Every structure is written in structure tokens, then in C-alpha cells.
Amino acid sequence: MKMLMLGSGTSTGVPRIGNDWGECDPSEPRNRRTRVSIIIENSAGGRVLIDTSTDLRAQLLANQIGKVDAVLWTHDHADHCHGIDDLRVMRYDRSNALPGYASEFTCQRLRRRFDYIFEGQFGYPTIIELGNVEKLRLLAGFSVNSVEMPHGPVTSTGFRLEADGKSIAYATDFSEITPAMLKCFASVDMLVVDCLRRKPHPTHAHLEMAIDFGKKCRARQIVLTHLDKSMDYRPLCAEVPKGVIVGYDGLELPA
């Protein structure tokens, strides 16, 4: 079981438009961050994509990913779902729609915004068969658990996937650690976790919160993601404790 980090950046990416690198060194390639999404793969070749970032096409091409078996969405914010149209190509050689899951609220928002994806249109087939993640337990050879996490005034769905005797959790875009989150992610082998910046933020985890969350979950590995332009890769690597990995686009890790 392994995790492929397609994108590791915040909603504006690094650099921001205008060639704004902030505190990040432009000569360090791991500071170039596209919007967040990951793929989790098991030993049988089952692949689950979490979020369809606005950079999805470029991410899939860069990592030579031609297909996935299912899609999960954390929430409906643009950087996490507006690359959804890039899934059309994955429908071409399938006899049925690609399975996708999200919370009921996120499902409603996605259906409203991208109706043609879920209903078909003008003779084109349905691309995604969308379902409520709360009812999901098995998917593409994984067992799946999920939890709703506070994300400022809304929520984001965290996921825990298990296969091959290992577990990987994905918890991005949260602003508070709840008992339900600790229960869902307890003793996980790998926790891929929101870490926007060093200073506290009203809708995202900051560095201290991300590391504290991993410790409270007793995660074997903690992988930081959703990093903004203040998080220069090399200094951050030197700063974090043992067992914490600074994520970057293209990072691949076994659970």
C-alpha cells in the first residue's frame, strides 16, 4: 500500500500568480507546489484518487497515471474539486461511470455545480456515479472510514483507507481536532495532514497543530501537505521532528 502526493500546495499554489514565491526558494524544485490531491494504491493495483484539484491533468501526466478506480472528495472548495472535468478521459474505456463519493452536503454542491458530470448531457454518458460516503465501507480493494472535520464555518471529510494490513489517512483542510477525528485515525500507519503555515489560521491547521494531531493519533508517519508560500522546503525539513515528512509534488511513500 502506498501514497502518491499529486499536489502539496495551498489554494493559490506556489508560486502564486505574479511569480510570488514568498519565503520559498525558487531554486528548490520541491517548493513548486500544485493544488492538493493524492492517490492511494494497494498491492492489487486498486487506485483511489482523493480530490480533483484544479491542476489534476498536469499532475496525472507528470506521474504517468492513466486511470483510477474511484474518487473521493473532501469538500467542494475550488482547489479540491474544479479539476473534475479531467476525469472524462477515464470514462472512455469503461462500460459504466466511475464511482465517486463525498459527504451528502458535498454531493449536493458538486451536483449543482457540475451537473453534466453526474447526469450526462447531449448524448454524452454520465462520467461519475456519485454516492454518499457515510454509507461506504469497501472501495477498490480498500476498507474505508471517514469523519467530518471542522474547516472554519464548514466541514471537510477526512478519510482512512486500509489494505494489505496497512492504513493511510488523509486529513486536509481542518481547523480543530475533535474526538471523532482521533478515533477515526487512531494508530494509523501514515497520516497525510493539513499544514498551511507556522502561524495559526482560522480555517486550516498550522505546523504545531498538525504535528500535535499526528502524535495524538499515534501515527507512525506524519506527512505534511497543503503548504503555503511561507513554508520553504529545506528549512522546514530541518525544523520538524523525526517521523515527520515534508510533502512535495510527486512524493511517493509506502505505508
Automatic annotation (TrEMBL):
Gene3D superfamilies: Ribonuclease Z/Hydroxyacylglutathione hydrolase-like. SMART domains: Lactamase_B (SM00849). GO terms for molecular function: hydrolase activity. Keywords: Hydrolase. InterPro entries: Metallo-B-lactamas, RibonucZ/Hydroxyglut_hydro. Residues 34-204 form the Metallo-beta-lactamase domain. This is MBL fold metallo-hydrolase. It comes from Qipengyuania marisflavi.
